[in-house]
Design a protein that fits this description.
Helix 8 runs parallel beside helix 11. Strands 3-2-1-4-5-6-7-8 form an eight-stranded mixed beta sheet, with helices on both faces. It has 15 helices and 13 strands. 42% of the residues lie in helices and 12% in strands. The protein is of the alpha/beta class. The protein starts with 17 loop residues before the first strand and ends with a strand. Helix 4 links the parallel strand 4 and strand 5. 45% of the residues are buried. Ligand SAJ binds next to helix 8.
Length: 442
């Protein structure tokens, strides 16, 4: 009787016991997608209320996230998923993903207190042979200077001998958490081949995406670099808008024709750059090398984009002057608080900068945003007695109301329309009786 060959344990049988530390906006969808695929998953967080809500099947993430409500509800009852604040639940985990927030402080330096505390908790509880995967966006050199040192300082483990280490930066977006996780290719940086292949095999199998493997430093630079690239591109578009205003040209016409040139892709000028990643990743990218090189273009791009809310205020002033009114007499309706169209996410929103300027200059204003609870007031009432409309966020609702609709709502004799997102057509706005000033098209 031939001896039955025992199948070699291949990576296809690789079914690690998993954990996600930080089950927030990034970590929760990751944890639930792996749990739904049948993996034994522990979702760890320090926020007991959040943990309780998730275990009760309630989605703690605000805003419209297609599929999240159902996913949280369906996984709450499953035996292979538990949310917990008990760090000892990490002790038997083979793979621990870290998705805690890594904000940038006022001085543009990354704040790693959440990351350090998560690493300390993990190091204290993890078993020998476990693999750590950092999903948070971090400055280049953080894996070496912060992650590895925090773990090894805490538990004396030796890299590649007692534990495996890798970083696989997330590429999620508000409103498309699940979609991006299961459609966007990823990059994993790893301290050795096994660590890289583990993540590649697992993520490709479960998320159905393609995963490239490289070293940790390269992965850190790519992640912060891909968003910095976008920030710099947007800054170019914004400076082109300011130039076109100076020339008396229409930047949108310029952009349309310029982008017909092969290899050109001028981005959209606008009222500013918000969100949880674009405004901060340029600072992360340069931070790691701040003692080695003084970068110029990346900080300058940040200052150009940060100037745009001030420019919106300048356009308001120009409109008020054009109509012979004075700033201390007019009232402004700010349309859109969220940082992006049809989203309720207001992190780093440019509108908050404009509001600060209006307050500082003692200009009367009212805020409207159909997606942000606090400002989801009746539009008709909000705008009826204002002299200036300032469109900061291109929510569909504003385009739907349209120029005729907006004009009807306003009692003002010479209403001013400042268009920060090129939602309206200048000639049509003027035909409806507006004094129209658009970014890059005044
Ligand atoms: N913005 C402009 N002009 C543009 C594009 C954006 O002013 O041409 C403004 C937006 O109004 C917003 C801010 O920039 O205030 C950020 O917009 P975003 O479209 O970059 O949206 P985010 O912040 O959600 O960025 C995400 C990022 N995705 C991931 O991190 C996985 C970013 O890397 C993506 O490039 C971006 O989505 C995308 O492509 O949509």
């Amino acid at each position: 009787m031939p001896v039955k060959k025992v199948a070699k344990k291949s990576t296809k049988d690789f079914k690690p016991k998993m954990a996600v530390v930080g089950i927030g906006y990034v970590g929760l969808p990751v944890a639930l997608i792996f749990a739904k695929a049948g993996y034994d998953m522990v979702g760890f967080d320090v926020d007991q209320a959040r943990v309780d809500r998730i275990n009760a099947g309630e989605n703690p993430i605000k805003g419209r996230e297609p599929g999240m409500d159902e996913l949280v509800k369906s996984m709450a009852k499953k035996k292979n998923f538990i949310a917990t604040t008990d760090p000892t639940k990490l002790a038997d985990r083979d793979m621990i993903l870290v998705a805690v927030q890594t904000p940038v402080e006022g001085n543009h330096e990354p704040k790693y207190e959440h990351l350090r505390s998560a690493l300390k908790t993990i190091a204290k509880n993890m078993k020998r042979g476990a693999q750590i995967v950092i999903e948070s966006t971090i400055a280049p050199t953080t894996m070496e200077r912060v992650v590895r040192t925090s773990i090894e300082h805490e538990n004396g483990f030796e890299i590649n001998k007692d534990y495996l280490l890798s970083n696989c930066p997330e590429r999620v977006m508000p409103g498309r958490l699940i979609y991006n996780l299961t459609h966007y290719n990823r990059l994993v940086g790893a301290y050795n081949d096994k660590a890289g292949q583990n993540v590649k095999k697992l993520y490709e199998k479960v998320l159905g995406i393609e995963v490239d493997v490289t070293d940790s430093l390269t992965a850190e630079i790519v992640k912060s670099g891909e968003n910095t690239y976008r920030d710099v591109q947007i800054a170019f578009a914004n400076e082109m808008a300011l130039l076109c205003e100076a020339y008396g040209a229409n930047v949108w016409k310029v952009r349309e024709l310029l982008n017909k040139c092969p290899g050109r892709a001028m981005h959209l000028p606008g009222a500013g750059v918000g969100g949880h990643c674009i405004p901060k990743d340029g600072w992360l990218l340069v931070y790691g090398a701040k003692d080695l090189i003084t970068t110029k273009m990346i900080p300058l791009a940040r200052s150009i984009n940060n100037f745009m809310p001030q420019h919106m205020f300048d356009l308001i002033q120009m409109g008020v002057a054009k109509t012979g009114q004075s700033m201390d007499k007019v009232k402004v309706a700010v349309l859109g608080y969220a940082y992006d169209a049809n989203s309720d996410d207001a992190r780093n929103t440019p509108t908050s900068d404009l509001v600060e300027i209006l307050k500082r200059e003692n200009v009367r204003y009212v805020l409207h945003d159909p997606y942000v609870e606090e400002y989801n007031i009746n539009l008709d009432k909000a705008v009826k007695d204002v002299d200036v409309l300032v469109l900061m966020t291109a929510h569909d609702e504003y385009g739907k109301v349209g120029l005729k609709g907006l004009r009807k709502l306003l009692k003002a004799k010479n209403p001013i329309l400042v268009d920060g997102r090129n939602v309206f057509d200048k000639a049509k706005a003027e035909k409806e009786g507006f004094v129209y000033l658009g970014v890059g098209n005044i």
